[in-house]
């Protein structure tokens, strides 16, 4: 048995305070281990006693994961380190993603008395955020605001973007940010030496390191590097159409000021979908509502109508899909996204799967309706057409198929789909109009319900049925003072899950008091 | 080929006396084995000791030079059984696996080994997967040591202590003829540090030499009447011998002042956490010199009565710092105090929570609470009576989403579960069991497939009760790792023998992927020291499965879906097995990426596929994500006032596995997905043809732009 007889007296204060404690919160696959290794190497090269630990295991597979480093002060050779971070006892937190910064705050690793929080502003969305049919993305600004309060110093930049721009990974830009933050007592050269010593992808890592360093030292300069918003260009095309377009734009200028921005966007969408006559119909609908709208409410009704009527009129049919896929601008976008250079070739394969429903909906309205009503014909169409089609749109044959489909635009107004969409639109706007006299807010909410209709095939059908359910629910609460609020709740419930469980629950609640 | 290569690090295993080793805990353990003259090593991978197996595999050359036999055992049971070599021969052997599941699997062999007793030192290195980041049920391996009577080491979590424990473990094993289990916690396995090396030692008797001179001793066989003698031998000889050795060699340690009113009794693995708490309370200095006496149990079983009572003598109260439950150590120590008629008060659970990891805060609260009750005068004022409440932290509990692990980008298992989800949408909900391995991530959103996991290789076996009679057949999943570990006999043989009318899907990704990509029997890669390339479907036929469908490209979601549907609806009433095979994408990328980069550099033609989404065609319903969950398939908020919901977007990490397009097709989702194959170094003809094509296409596009209004990219 070993006995230690020399006992120091109690010191009263935290004797491990002089140990620098650093936590890295990362998402599996971000290279948190590499970053940890570099930090350890810097400290060791500077003659410090240092220890790093991690919890690996399945956390590597895209899960949240934590690395922990402790660095002893100069001259202490055999400190006793802890193997895990403790709440309220962390000097530096590096969060490789915004929600991981939030997780660090939640776990108490970020405290206003001492913690320097270095976070990447980018988001790696969790599955739970992505799978919501509506918008399930967590509010990064809430974490940013919390970080300002929770940390002694809060430093952030989009470290992912900085790293990718240099052909590297986020661990390198974060390492640069750590160096740039000045939170560790080592020089830039010492940090860079650690990258050199690791010997892998050194140049790209150093470039990303420099970008991360700069973002901390000179934050405004790197913000300026962000891409500016695209400028809206005037359309090109036949002179006659351009003149018609300008006439439409003048009509937009005559709308209430609060409506104009949305109406202009809606008009572009509708005209791009069909033509200027269709655009005129769009503006007729808006004008009709604007005439009955309430200026005291900022024409909220017409603003919502400008958005949702445009979406309803520019529905997603085969012609539109083919049109979007054969635009020159689209090919340019793909080339840019994939980083194609002049010397490289590009093959583009489209994944299309037409069903009998799509074929029938493209027939002239009368014929299409008869075909759709006939089981035998629908089965036949399925047999002929219903299978996955891979179309090489970079080749002439594939391109021409889509190009010819897109050329059917002039015929579109005679299709069954158009008739159905028009009928649906008319019925919806009729309801809105009816409601408007008694309950302005409810009418606005009914307009917003259009958001529920989206997707293709089954997803589209499910959206339609949710829309119908919410509209029916609106009928149940109509006349109540809180009707608009109920419809908003129904819509939000409908966007929560795929099957509409939340919506059914909300409807059940409504029936319990309004039945 | 394992996920992480230790080729460089294993060079450090050659260091000799006078040199300093710097690195991770698991490497230190390997070095300690070599310095101990180990004769054979083996084990089964699993966090947190997967890397230990990888290190051993990468160190085979060195092991060979030293005449050390390395075996990648088929299971933990096989690994523990291998220690039989130390029963009759004075050869040191070590095996490793994870606790507590590995101990469960190995318990038969461990119990027999402990009964027989050993001649050569037998060491079981258990990576205790407990607490944060753990992937298994929370239990303690401790109970196995108690029930089978082998000794349990739990060294302080720093490299010199762990290295010393390996050497002491062998010696203790030999001194008491008992196998020894060395426990390392998850963070100790990956903790970095330094220690002074000794020279590697060749085994005095190699397994090769032993094989040439076989021995047997009937007294070591676990059969009556010897088994009765074994039990008596444990109690009368081996146990006292162990206690003597522990005391004489000072395996446990005492720190702090000789005389004090209170003391701490701590598991070795808890030592650093305890010191940190004392440091924060101002009761230990930065190098760990403590004002409170600490009895460190580097051996947590057996507890040595004499030593403990000596430590307890003269103290008023003791605090036991023992993580996990039940509190075996506290109970044992309490019994000792009681039998000795001692008045020392023993604290432990109560001040500490019964369940869960002893995190920094829990350790601080537990120890501060104990000292406050017993010796408040030692504590600084602000601990006894805090002046101000700690600052309130912003509440983000509703903001921050949980982030459980999931399938990697391009994982070949994703399309299997997308297909299963489609089948369920068509036929209704099924009774589904999962197994252990990556495929268990399917139980989480967005798939939510599989409701139970009973153990490695036991997926189909855990559906045995649900055999026919219902409206729909039961389905089970099992990975290739689980299949070879235990599944072939316990699950598949079980199905065949009992004429099970259910469906089992073998998820074959060519590796034991979840544990880091180690090879298994059916791996396709050539492995210089192991026999791979043994197809699972052949093994199935061998045990009598008549209905087998082999799928060699899981990304074909339509085919996958049709095959599952066929298995669920066929008239055949015996076991139906689908082997769904595609290579683990992590491993595949690791293999192919350098080759591809090389080919591009050399000017050869290479197609690099990646998927994309037409953002003006995507309507933001996210149906594709609900059939995928791929990390590279994410969302993007458009700068378009007309759009409320973010649209799908694929980032540059996409590996072009094809799942997106296949799912869009099979589920008839939407036409917004496209695959873009960037062709590096296209041939001359190809470039020429592409040029012509693009000129004609551009002409057609210009033609249309002249006829209708064109808004550029605006939708």
TrEMBL record, chain A:
SUPFAM superfamilies: Pyruvate-ferredoxin oxidoreductase, PFOR, domain III (SSF53323)
Start and end residues of each Pyruvate/ketoisovalerate oxidoreductase catalytic domain: 28-214
Gene3D superfamilies: Pyruvate-ferredoxin oxidoreductase, PFOR, domain III (3.40.920.10)
Transmembrane domains' residue ranges: none
Single GO MF annotation: oxidoreductase activity, acting on the aldehyde or oxo group of donors
Presence of keyword Repeat: no
Pfam families (UniProt xref): DUF6537, POR
Residue ranges occupied by any DUF6537 domain in the UniProt entry: 259-472
InterPro entries reported for this sequence: DUF6537, IorB_Oxidoreductase, Pyrv/ketoisovalerate_OxRed_cat, Pyrv_flavodox_OxRed_cen
Protein name according to UniProt: Indolepyruvate ferredoxin oxidoreductase beta subunit
Automatic annotation (TrEMBL), chain B:
Record has Nucleotidyltransferase as a keyword: no
Alphabetical list of InterPro entries matching this protein: 4Fe4S_Fe-S-bd (IPR017896), HACL1-like (IPR045025), THDP-binding (IPR029061), TPP_enzyme_TPP-bd (IPR011766)
One GO BP annotation of this record: small molecule metabolic process
UniProt keyword terms in alphabetical order: Metal-binding, Pyruvate
PROSITE patterns xrefs: 4FE4S_FER_2
A single GO molecular function term of this UniProt record: catalytic activity
Record-annotated 4Fe-4S ferredoxin-type domain positions: 609-640
Keyword Metal-binding: yes
Protein name, per record: Indolepyruvate ferredoxin oxidoreductase alpha subunit
Species of provenance: Ruegeria marina
Lineage: Bacteria, Pseudomonadati, Pseudomonadota, Alphaproteobacteria, Rhodobacterales
């Amino acid at each position: 048995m070993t006995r230690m007889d020399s006992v120091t007296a109690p010191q009263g204060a935290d004797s491990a305070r002089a140990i620098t404690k650093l936590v890295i919160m990362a998402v599996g696959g971000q290279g948190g281990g590499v970053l940890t290794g570099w930090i350890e190497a810097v400290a060791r090269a500077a003659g410090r006693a240092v220890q790093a630990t991690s919890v690996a295991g399945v956390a590597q597979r895209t899960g949240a994961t934590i690395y922990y480093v402790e660095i002893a002060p100069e001259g202490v050779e055999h400190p006793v380190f802890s193997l895990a971070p403790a709440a309220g006892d962390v000097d530096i937190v590096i969060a490789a993603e915004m929600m991981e910064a939030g997780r660090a705050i939640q776990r108490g690793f970020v405290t206003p008395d001492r913690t320097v929080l270095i976070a990447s502003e980018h988001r790696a969305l969790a599955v739970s955020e992505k799978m919501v049919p509506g918008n399930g993305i967590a509010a990064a600004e809430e974490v940013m605001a919390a970080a300002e309060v929770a940390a002694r110093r809060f430093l952030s930049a989009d470290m992912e973007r900085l790293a990718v721009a240099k052909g590297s990974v986020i661990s390198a830009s974060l390492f640069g940010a750590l160096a740039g933050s000045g939170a560790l007592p080592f020089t830039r050269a010492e940090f860079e030496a650690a990258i050199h010593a690791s010997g892998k992808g050194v140049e790209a890592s150093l470039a990303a390191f420099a970008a991360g360093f700069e973002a901390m030292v000179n934050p405004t300069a790197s913000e300026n590097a962000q891409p500016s918003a695209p400028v809206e260009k005037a359309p090109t095309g036949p002179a006659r159409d351009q003149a018609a377009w300008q006439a439409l734009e003048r009509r937009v200028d005559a709308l209430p000021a609060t409506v104009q921005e949305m109406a202009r966007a809606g008009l572009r969408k509708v005209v791009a979908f069909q033509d200027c006559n269709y655009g005129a119909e769009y503006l007729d609908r808006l004008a009709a509502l604007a005439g009955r709208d309430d200026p005291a409410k900022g024409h909220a009704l017409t603003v919502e109508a400008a958005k949702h009527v445009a979406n309803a009129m520019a529905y997603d049919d085969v012609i539109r899909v083919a049109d979007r896929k054969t635009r020159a601008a689209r090919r340019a976008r793909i080339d840019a996204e994939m980083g194609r250079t002049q010397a490289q070739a590009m093959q583009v394969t489209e994944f299309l799967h037409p069903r009998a429903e799509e074929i029938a909906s493209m027939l002239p309205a009368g014929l299409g309706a008869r075909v759709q009503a006939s089981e035998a014909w629908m089965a036949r169409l399925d047999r002929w057409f219903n299978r996955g089609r891979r179309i090489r749109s970079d080749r002439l044959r594939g391109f021409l198929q889509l190009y010819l489909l897109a050329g059917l635009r002039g015929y579109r107004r005679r299709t069954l789909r158009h008739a159905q969409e028009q009928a649906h639109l008319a019925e919806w706007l009729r309801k809105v109009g009816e409601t408007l006299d008694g309950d302005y807010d409810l009418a606005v909410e009914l307009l917003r319900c259009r958001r529920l209709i989206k997707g293709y095939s089954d997803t589209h059908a499910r959206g339609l049925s949710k829309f119908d359910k919410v509209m029916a629910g609106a009928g149940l609460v109509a006349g109540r003072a809180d009707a608009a609020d109920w419809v908003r709740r129904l819509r939000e419930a409908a966007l929560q899950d795929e099957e509409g469980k939340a919506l059914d629950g909300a409807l059940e609640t409504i029936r319990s008091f309004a039945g | 080929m394992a996920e992480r290569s230790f080729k460089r690090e294993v060079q450090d295993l050659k260091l000799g006396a006078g040199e300093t080793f710097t690195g991770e805990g698991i490497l230190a353990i390997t070095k300690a084995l070599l310095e101990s003259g180990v004769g054979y090593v083996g084990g089964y991978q699993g966090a947190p000791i997967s890397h230990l197996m990888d290190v051993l595999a990468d160190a085979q050359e060195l092991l060979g030079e030293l005449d050390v036999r390395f075996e990648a055992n088929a299971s933990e049971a096989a690994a523990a059984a291998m220690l039989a070599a130390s029963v009759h021969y004075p050869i040191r052997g070590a095996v490793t696996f994870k606790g507590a599941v590995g101990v469960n699997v190995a318990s038969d062999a461990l119990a027999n080994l402990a009964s027989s007793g050993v001649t050569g030192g037998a060491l079981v290195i258990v990576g205790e997967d407990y607490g944060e980041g753990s992937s298994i049920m929370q239990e303690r391996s401790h109970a196995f040591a108690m029930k089978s009577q082998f000794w349990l080491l739990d060294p302080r979590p720093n490299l010199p202590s762990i290295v010393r424990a390996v050497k002491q473990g062998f010696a203790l094993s030999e001194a008491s003829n008992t196998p020894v289990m060395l426990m390392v916690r998850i963070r100790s396995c990956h903790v970095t540090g330094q220690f002074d090396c000794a020279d590697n030692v060749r085994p005095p008797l190699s397994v090769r030499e032993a094989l040439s001179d076989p021995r047997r001793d009937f007294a070591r066989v676990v059969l009556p009447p010897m088994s009765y003698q074994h039990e008596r031998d444990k109690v009368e000889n081996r146990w006292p011998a162990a206690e003597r050795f522990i005391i004489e060699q000072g395996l446990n340690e005492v720190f702090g002042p000789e005389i004090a009113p209170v003391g701490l009794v701590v598991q070795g693995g808890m030592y650093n956490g305890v010191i940190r708490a004392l440091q924060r309370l101002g009761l230990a200095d930065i190098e760990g010199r403590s004002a409170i006496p600490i009895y460190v149990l580097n051996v947590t079983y057996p507890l040595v009565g004499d030593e403990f009572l000596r430590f307890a003598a003269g103290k008023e109260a003791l605090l036991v710092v023992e993580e996990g439950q039940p509190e075996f150590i506290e109970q044992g120590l309490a019994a000792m105090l009681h039998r000795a008629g001692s008045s020392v008060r023993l604290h432990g659970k109560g001040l500490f929570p019964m369940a869960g990891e002893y995190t920094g805060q829990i350790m601080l609260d537990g120890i501060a609470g104990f000292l406050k009750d017993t010796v408040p005068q030692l504590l600084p004022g602000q601990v006894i009576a805090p002046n101000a409440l700690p600052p309130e932290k912003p509440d983000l509990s509703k903001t921050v989403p949980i982030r459980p692990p999931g399938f990697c980008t391009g994982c070949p298992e994703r399309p299997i579960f997308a297909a299963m989800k489609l089948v369920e949408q068509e036929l209704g909900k099924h009774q589904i069991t999962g197994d252990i391995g990556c495929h268990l991530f399917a139980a989480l959103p967005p798939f939510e497939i599989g409701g139970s996991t009973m153990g490695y290789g036991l997926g189909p076996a855990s559906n045995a009760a649900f055999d026919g009679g219902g409206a729909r057949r039961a389905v089970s999943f099992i990975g290739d790792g689980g299949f070879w570990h235990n599944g072939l006999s316990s699950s598949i043989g079980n199905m065949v023998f009992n004429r099970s009318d259910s469906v089992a899907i073998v998820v074959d990704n060519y590796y034991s992927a979840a544990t880091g990509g180690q090879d298994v029997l059916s791996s396709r890669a050539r492995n210089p020291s192991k026999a791979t390339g043994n197809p699972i479907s052949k093994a199935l036929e061998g045990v009598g499965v008549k209905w087998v469908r082999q799928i060699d490209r899981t990304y074909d979601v339509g085919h996958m879906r049709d095959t599952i549907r066929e298995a669920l609806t066929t008239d055949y009433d015996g076991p139906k097995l689908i082997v769904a095979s595609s290579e683990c994408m992590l491993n595949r990328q690791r293999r192919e990426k350098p080759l591809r980069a090389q080919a591009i550099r050399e000017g050869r033609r290479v197609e690099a596929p990646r998927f994309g989404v037409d953002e003006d065609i995507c309507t933001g319903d996210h149906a594709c994500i609900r059939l995928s969950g791929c990390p590279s398939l994410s969302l993007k908020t458009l700068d378009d006032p007309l759009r409320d919901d973010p649209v799908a977007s694929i980032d540059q990490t996409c590996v072009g596995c094809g799942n997106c397009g296949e799912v869009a097709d099979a589920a008839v989702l939407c036409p917004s997905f496209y695959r873009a194959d960037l062709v590096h170094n296209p041939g001359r003809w190809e470039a020429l043809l592409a040029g012509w094509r693009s000129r004609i296409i551009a002409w057609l596009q210009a033609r249309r732009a002249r006829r209708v209004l064109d808004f550029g990219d605006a939708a």
